[in-house]
UniProtKB/TrEMBL annotation:
Keyword Cell membrane: no
Gene3D superfamilies per record: alpha/beta hydrolase (3.40.50.1820)
SUPFAM superfamilies: alpha/beta-Hydrolases
Organism: Gordonia caeni
Domain AB hydrolase-1 residues, every copy: 32-272
Protein's UniProt name: Alpha/beta fold hydrolase
Length: 286
């Protein structure tokens, strides 16, 4: 089913900064929903949301947007989080989408929050899946991010398996097929370049210096500017972005609510699929 559905929904948009590839499903209507993916070895929008696209297409016109630099859309110069946000605006402008609801997993949630801050009239509702806010009680970087850093510095299959296992509560989800799919994608040169900019030891050291600059506020310090209704979703057993991180966005975002899913890791939309979909559907329908 994946292969057929992949071909049926796949499309490409030529912009002035290269091709943005995406997947599209749902009847033509004004209820547009953008699904923004996370980061990590072998990740892309299709792999994050292929199991959810058909569900949300029942009520919305849905687009899975593939960010530049992850081996699908054309790469562009700049930090992946910033170029991802710019690509979403280019995408919306090119397709004449004036405003949309957004679901963002991990990095995609950070991108969604930044868009809601900078373009408040264009983001109608926001759903984040882990990954947003600072660590409050848990160590930083988290266990999952340390494993990601180790893989990025010197990739091999064993490190990939350890990282993938940290992403989930149910280890049976880390199948041989998933490992092979992610390994093949993670060794793409552009994907490796993007990962190095985000998760290498050198990138982490640079981030620490950046955070120490008193003149530069981190994105989460601006979350009080998010005006749209926001649903924060979290896996209770998330070892990449532990749930204590939810405390700051829950307090700072004026119209935020929080839903935590038990026996679930970082991939809430995959590991708690039915519960996640029904929770988000109810939120979007209000």
């Amino acid at each position: 089913m994946d292969a057929t559905y992949y071909e049926e929904t796949q499309a490409a948009l030529i912009t002035d900064e290269g091709v943005i590839r995406y997947h599209e499903a749902g009847e033509e209507n004004d209820d547009v929903l953008l699904l923004l993916h996370g980061s990590g070895p072998g990740v892309n929008g299709w792999r994050n949301y292929r199991g959810n696209l058909a569900f949300f297409a029942k009520t919305h016109h849905v687009y899975i947007v593939e960010f530049p630099g992850f081996g699908v859309s054309d790469p562009v110069e700049g930090h992946p989080v910033l170029t991802a946000g710019k690509s979403v605006i280019r995408f919306m402008d090119a397709l004449g989408i004036s405003s949309a609801a957004v679901v963002g997993n991990s990095m995609g949630g950070v991108v969604g929050i930044n868009l809601a801050i900078k373009y408040p009239d264009r983001i109608t509702k926001l759903v984040t899946i882990g990954g947003v806010g600072p660590n409050v009680f848990s160590s930083s970087p988290s266990e999952g991010l340390r494993l990601l850093q180790e893989f990025t510095d010197a990739p091999d299959r064993d490190k990939l398996v350890r990282w993938l296992t940290s992403m989930v509560y149910d280890r049976s989800l880390v199948t041989d097929e998933l490992i092979e799919e992610r390994w093949e994608a993670a060794t793409d040169p552009e994907a490796q370049k993007t990962a190095a900019m985000m998760y290498s030891s050198a990138a982490f050291e640079m981030q620490q210096k950046f955070m120490a600059d008193a003149d530069i506020a981190p994105y989460w310090a601006m979350m009080h500017k998010v005006k749209c209704p926001t649903l924060l979703t979290w896996g209770r057993d998330d070892r990449v972005s532990p749930p204590d991180m939810a405390m700051v966005p829950m307090r700072l975002i004026p119209k935020a609510e929080l839903h935590i899913f038990p026996e679930c890791g970082h991939w809430v939309m995959i590991e708690a699929k039915e519960a996640f979909e029904s929770t988000v559907a109810a939120f979007l329908a209000r």
